[in-house]
Amino acid sequence: MKLGPRVALVTTLTVAGVLAAATGAMLHLRRADLEADLRRQMRDMADTLAASIEPLPPEGAREALEKRVSLTKTGAFRLEMVASQGQRPTNPWAPLVEEATLADAPAGRLFEGEAPFYAIAIPIHSDPPGEPRRHVVAFLGLVRDCSYLNDDVFVTARRLAPWLSLAVLGFGLVIYLVLMGSVVKPLRRLVDGIDAVAKGDLSRALLPQREDEIGSLAGRFNAMTNYLRQAREEEAGAKAARVEVEERLRHSEKLATVGQMAAEIAHEVGTPLNVIGGRAKSLAKRAGDPAEVRKNAEIIAAQVDRLTKIIRQVLDFSRKSRPTMTQVDLARAVDEAISFVDERLKRQRIRSEVQRQADLPLVPGNPDEIQQVVLNLVTNAIHAMPDGGRLNVVVQQVIRRKEGLALSSPAPYLMLEVSDTGAGVPHGDRERIFEAFFTTKDVGEGTGLGLAVSNGIVKDHDGWMELGDPPQGALFRVFLPVSAPADDDDPLSTSPGLPKKSESATID
Ligand code: ADP
Q1: How far apart, in whole angstroms, are the C-alpha atoms of residue 341 and residue 420?
Q2: What is the 8-class DSSP label of residue 91?
Q3: What pLDDT tens digit does each residue of the chain (508 aa) get?
Q4: Which of 41, 207, 287, 346 is deepest in the core (most CB within 10 A)?
Q5: Could you identify the atom of ligand 1 that is nearest to the CA of residue 420?
Q6: Are 61 and 84 contacting, i.e. CB atoms less than 8 angstroms apart?
């Protein structure tokens, strides 16, 4: 039962109890008054009766009294001949007669029971008061039916009952309305306000006009929401600033990577340019040979295609990330990263293998940022194997508990695993490699930002990174949460890059 009705009910029942007890006491007093009146009345009647009979000479007293009794017809009253001179009655009159004898005056008593009655024993004297010969010659008994006493109390109670019930109901209603207005409704508004805060709405101010305990509770609540609102605004400001700094850091890291690659890019671009230059010279020399012209032109066109591809990749990589989140095909990001470093892998005699599970789902995220993570890990692996080795990349779906949240329920994640057969990460460095600006590479070769930025990106995507401990080389794992299944009409769900079957690609 809710607070309002419960308190109203308890209070009303208490008041009803108190009123019932008060009514009981009142009826009791009423009955006591009636009894006192009865006693007085009976005593007066007894005195009047005795005065009308006395003095009564002992001789013939009994006959005279019996005659008087037989002549008395009094309705609710009854006159009895109780005892004549010298007799002691053995019937219920005995105690009253004894009392009247001792007091030398009428003695009466109320007899309760189903049919209550009042009986009074009246001594009748032989001579008027003051006469020395005066003595009791007989006892008359006067009896009165007293059922009117109970009737009177009952009628009084019946008259009072409707008014009392009405008073109790009215009282209950008033208590209920007062409680609802001054306690229950304000409490409900407080609860609504607390619910709103729990849902993140901090814009509510509650009951500021009240000056009682509920008002001060509401005041504290308002102060708390104010404080939370300020803290949230400060946090939002700090977060925006952090996001901006991170954004800049990521972009600088990208540019740094591009800078490091400049030499390689020059090399990449230099080779086709040499080929183009050589073929152009050969064209000039043997312009008359159509077969030679076609062959050289085809080679030049192929080399120009290669140059275009290199330049597009560099431009793609160095441009600022789009801040939008979309659905990312992780396996495609891996393919793109591998093709980006393809030439270098060949030059360093690194054999690479990409294994991906069939029907991999898309993950929500920023494609540029995810590609940056993949490229950082692959580039680090290449750096770790200057004299050749093996690069393994695995993409598969796993069910995991979120890192650091042992109580979270297991959920599907896409796992990207990049491992190499290089020197590995020394134990002393394991704790520090995700720190910004931590690098073991020579100046100009490493910035120490790759893993720090990658870790930040992965965390922003609600995932986490792990450093494995393989027997040889280094192993990094990235976990990205899988999105809810995309709608059928979502163009991303039919992305041409999404692998449909299990496939394993080996690029040597
Ligand atoms: P950078 O590559 O510019 O040094 P990173 O943050 O990418 O910065 O890497 C930090 C450090 O982690 C590297 O300098 C290197 O010591 C270590 N590291 C990262 N990847 C590997 C790897 N595959 N094998 C061995 N050491 C690695």
Answers
A1: 15
A2: S
A3: 787 788 888 988 999 999 999 999 999 999 999 999 999 999 999 999 999 898 988 888 888 888 888 887 667 888 888 887 777 777 778 899 999 999 999 999 999 888 899 999 999 999 988 888 888 999 999 999 999 998 999 999 999 999 999 999 999 899 899 988 888 888 888 888 888 888 888 777 776 667 788 888 888 888 888 888 899 899 999 989 888 887 787 777 777 766 666 766 776 677 788 889 988 988 888 888 888 888 889 889 888 887 887 777 667 666 555 557 789 999 999 998 898 888 889 999 999 999 999 899 999 998 888 988 999 999 999 999 999 999 999 999 999 888 766 667 789 999 999 999 999 999 999 988 998 778 898 766 777 888 988 998 898 898 999 999 999 999 999 999 996 433 433 333 333 333 333 333 322 2
A4: 207
A5: 23
A6: yes
Nearest Cα residue to 504 out of 337, 353, 352, 390:
353
Helix axis angle, 213-285 relative to 290-318, nearest 10°?
160
| Nearest-CA residue for atom 3 of ligand 1 | 446
Please report where in the chains the tokens 């800078």 appear, as a residue.
259
| d(C-alpha 436, C-alpha 36), whole Å | 105
Query: Residue 180 gets which letter from DSSP?
Result: I
Q: Which of 157, 83, 26, 31 is nearest to 39 (CA)?
A: 31
Q: How far is the CA of 433 from the centre of ligand 1 (A)?
A: 7
53, amino acid identity: I
Tokens of 291: 């077969």
437 Cα: distance to centroid of ligand 1 (angstroms): 10
Q: What are phi and psi of 481, to 5 degrees?
A: -65, 140
Residue 116, number of CB atoms within 10 A of its CB: 16
Global confidence as pTM: 0.47
Alpha-carbon distance of 153 to 417, in angstroms, equals 97
Nearest to 180 by CA among 5, 10, 11: 5
> Which residue's CA is minimally distant from atom 27 of ligand 1?
425
Closest CA to 101 of 111, 89, 110: 89
- For ligand 1, atom 13, the nearest C-alpha belongs to 439
By most ligand atoms within 8 Å of CB, the mutation choice from 419, 451, 478 for ligand 1 is: 451
Q: How many residues does the chain have?
A: 508
Question: Is the distance from CB of 459 to CB of 369 less than 8 angstroms?
Answer: no
State in Å: Cα 228 to ligand 1 middle: 41
Alpha-carbon distance 340 to 290, whole Å? 36
- As a whole number of angstroms, the distance between CA 365 and CA 363 comes to 6
Helices (H), 341-473: 342-347, 367-384, 450-460
Ligand 1 contact, 364 CB (< 6 A): no
